[in-house]
Amino acid sequence: MPLANPPAPQLTRTRAAVDATNLLRAYGSGEAQVVALRNVSVQFASGAFTAIMGPSGSGKSTLMHCLAGLDTVDRGSVRIGDTEITGLNDKALTRLRRDKIGFIFQQFNLLPTLTAEENILLPASIAGAKADPAWIGRVIATLDLADRLTHKPTELSGGQQQRVACARALATRPEVVFADEPTGNLDTRSSGEVLRFLRRSVDDFGQTIVMVTHDPSAAAHADRVVFLADGQIVEDLHRPTADSVIDTMRGFENRVPLAGEGR
To answer: What is the pTM of this model?
Structure first.
């Protein structure tokens, strides 16, 4: 279906939307220490859709949390666009997450007392900025939410709530959107709707998406899949299909984590 509005201009960004170098993240100490990330270096291209996958305990969620400034690293560097986030204080990190990063969570994280429209506009409201009506209208139209804007989360289906969460993540036109298992609580139909929107947000809006998932079918919507095992990147698959993702994951089934590795 053609869009009601002309294509929005793409954001001007650096070559890599996210750049991580030699990330080390460990929890605990001594014999109880767990190394979640072991010297991980990876770039995520601007205007691309990348999935992060790996077995349970591989470090994939820790990697995303460190990239998004939700967790600290013990060593290494993370850049979002032109901004080095490693070492930023809490106030600066909060400002960066508000202005440059969008989040989509498995649990939706909508405020139950606000309507769908109020939830979508919340990031701009918190920032004290006025949302671009044309941009917000385009996102709402693309997600088919126009007739749900006055509804509160309890009046929406799971798929509708996640679409509201997607709209909220894109409302400020961030440098990058991090999606943590965004289809984990959805049925097959709703999952497909959300994944098609994420794909379209890259193709039509020039958005950068980094998604953690355990689902090969979800990963197949991405341009690239980065695989972690035992806190390290072990595969980097471009133009994935569900079958190629499954074949790659099979190689991890018999891998035994080293002592003190993975999370």
So the answer is: 0.86
